[in-house]
Target: beta-aspartyl-peptidase
Amino acid sequence: MGRPRCYAQLLLGLLLLRLSWCLVVADDGGGAEEGGGVFPVVVSTWPFREAVRVAWEVVSPSGAGGSAVDAVVAGCSACEMLRCDGTVGPGGSPDENGETTLDALIMNGTTMEIGAVAAMRYVKDGIKAAKLVMDHTEHTLLVGEKATSFAISMGLAGPADLSSPESIEKWTIWRQNQCQPNFWKNVIPVGSCGPYHPIGVPSEESKGSVKHVLEQTQGGICQGLLEPNNLLEPMNSLKSVDRHNHDTISMAVIDKAMDQYQDLLHMLMMKLVRVEQLVMVVESMRRGMEPRDAAMDAILRIARKYPEFVGAVFAINKKGVHAGACNGWTFQYSVRNSSMQDVEVITVAP
Ligand SMILES: *[C@@H]1O[C@H](CO)[C@@H](O)[C@H](O)[C@H]1NC(C)=O
Ligand SMILES: *[C@@H]1O[C@H](CO)[C@@H](O)[C@H](O)[C@H]1NC(C)=O
Model:
């Protein structure tokens, strides 16, 4: 089956484009019996209680009767509107030109369909745009102004200014600090604002080699991400200048027990964690490991090699048992299921 691999590569590719949202939905289409009563469950990275409450209202047995996908859209739209953590959604972290653009991804766990937008300008509804891409195109990802014109043509509001006083201020302070820190490398000037010029690039022997370099680059994008010194850091953006900015919400709504591949979708991917680690957690759970041990095992394996890495994984099994593990920071996630009175925020210490 080519599917899971495809999924992994997509996720990598999208992270490269610095996701503001990474949304995962699973729904087994009504096949599974195991663990029946424990679902639906809504989980989200970070203590974004309001987002989880809104999603729960949509998918809960006594709620609006929406699908898992609807719930994720509602929950994440809430976060975009509330600008959760000050960084998610319109008015959130600016790029180096001072502009805020949005990224979002959504997946239907049954069909494995994905829709995503990246670096979308002038439209405030990132997650709704992603769903429109999934529902109404054969594409996976639309970017920049092409995403904008698509979203507006499909009925979303725009064009609108995605800046806020806070995002402008953040950018102004960064400019005053000589544009430091930033994500440029092998360029001059060092330590001040651009324009930048490349240094130390291998000289090209002939015009013919340009194509060769291009081909290599295109083929190497995903592989490049797996190299030790390139831990999925978003590029060319102020977003991760403060590494402890959240910037991202990942939310999963699980409405039924799942099969083996859908386990994968229940791993919420954090910045700086690699897809292999997620696959490993799933494999471990399949072999009978508890979510806590599986998550811990994956994190420890990375930490042993790269003690400095900052990341977290979250795992949930077919019985609805969930756990997280992290390294380099204290990580929180939020959960709601039918026996809880309200959203529970769980803190995971490294
Ligand atoms: C909901 O989650 C709590 C704690 O995470 C757990 O104890 C409980 O069994 C779960 N409820 C269901 C119906 O699975
Ligand atoms: C996923 O897509 C299928 C086919 O279009 C649909 O029947 C199902 O309801 C979708 N799942 C969710 C959770 O929306």
